[in-house]
Amino acid sequence: MAKRYFLEYSSDERAACSGTYNHLTQQYDKHLHGDLRGNTMKTMKNYISKIRREKAEYNPRDFRVYDLEAPDEPDGHIGQVYYEP
C-alpha cells in the first residue's frame, strides 16, 4: 500500500544526491531533502520533530507536507497540506 503523505524540507546540509528541482523557487536546490513518507499527519509531524532534534546543526527549515490524495495545486503539482517554517 502506498503512503499518503510525503515530506520535503530545506537545510544547510548538502543533499546526498546531486540536488533536486524545487518547484516552489523554480530552481535547482542542493539543500532540499525529502523522501519521508507516512499514512497520517501525526507521523509526518513526528518526522519533523525528529529531524529538528537529530539534524539541528544543519538548521532544518521550511517543512512541507504533501498529500497524494489532495487536489493538485494550480501549477499541477501535488497539493501541499501543511507548512512549518
Please characterize this protein's 3D structure.
The chain has 85 residues and is α+β, with helices and mostly antiparallel strands. The chain has one domain. The chain is built from one helix and six strands.
Q: Shape, please? A: globular
Number of E-state strands: 6
**Structural Rg:** 13 Å
Largest sheet: number of strands, sense, barrel closure: 4 strands, antiparallel
Give the overall pLDDT as a whole number: 85
Total domain count: 1
SS-based class? alpha+beta
Low-confidence stretches: none
Q: State the distance separating the first and last CA atoms.
A: 30 Å
Write the element-wise H/E pattern from the N-terminal end onward: EEEEHEE
- In DSSP terms (H or I, runs of 4 or more residues), the helix count works out at 1
Strand percentage, roughly?
Answer: 35-45%
Strand order of the largest sheet: 4-1-5-6
* Helix content bin: 10-25%
Please provide a brief summary of the model.
16% of the residues lie in helices and 36% in strands.
Any chance you could write out the topology, listing elements then pairs?
Elements lengths: L4 E6 L9 E3 L4 E3 L2 E7 L2 H14 L6 E7 L12 E5 L1
Antiparallel strand pairs: 1-4, 1-5, 2-3, 5-6
